[in-house]
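USER: If only I could read backbone structure tokens as easily as an amino acid sequence. It would mean a lot if you studied the pair and described how this chain folds. Here is the record:
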Amino acid sequence: MSWTVTKSSEVQTEIRIPFNQSAGWEQWGLICADVHLDNPHCLRDLHRHHLEQALERDAFVLCIGDLFDAMQGKQDRRSNKSDLDARLKSGTYLNDLVEFAHEFYEPYIKQLALISEGNHETSVTNRYEYSLLDGLAYSIKKAGSPVVRGGYRGWVKFQFEHESGGRKHSKLAYYLHGSGGGGPVTKGVIQTNRRAVYLPDADMVFSGHIHESWIFPINRVRINLRGEERAEAQYHVQLPTYKEEFVNMPGGWHHETGKPPKPVGAWWMRLYYSNRTGRVEVQFLEADK
């Protein structure tokens, strides 16, 4: 594994990445959210396919909230025992959720860089005073994972360090699991301009929660101390889900509330060295189905 990850503050995770100034240098990252791993409608085969690719590419994996579904506890009014995987039908539901997730991610734990909170995790903590993410992070770190447990929102600093030990520069991502319903027409895109105002330092913004998928660059101009202008884009990346609630479903909450089919999958972040700019640049690609 070429990259390393540490928690540098209460709100920031730092991923250190050695790079060189060759045309072929690149580093991949898999960015996902709303896996809802334990939900029977989670496309676990698709998620596993992407994780296998991450393993092949030595990619870091960031999961921005709702890794767990966790709606089948006794005190959850959304509970429906028909939506419970057979392996989770026991009297130790929350512990079994952690073991279930550990078993699934075990082949890929060295690729997991960040798992952060979503509303499904915070709901469990509020109801039962137990953190599923703390349990999973503790479990997989004991097994050798470098993973950092993040909050509902925070920052990821990608620190690029030249292999010769000299040149350094960085990119900064802000992540937020999300809020609201996204809007049937705007798909949540309207939030990009609002976030761009209060997140001037972010080179990219990752969000989930609304189960939509798009990328929206906002172009901006900066000026350095020498009076030289530089044009750049702030990339807003909306992350889809791995939970398929529409196809082959004759009914249920998703259909009763008139919700449309939602995109599934994740996004790849490709970091590469550009001879033109002399810096590491970023490209986002939709993960294949």
Observations:
- The radius of gyration is 19 Å.
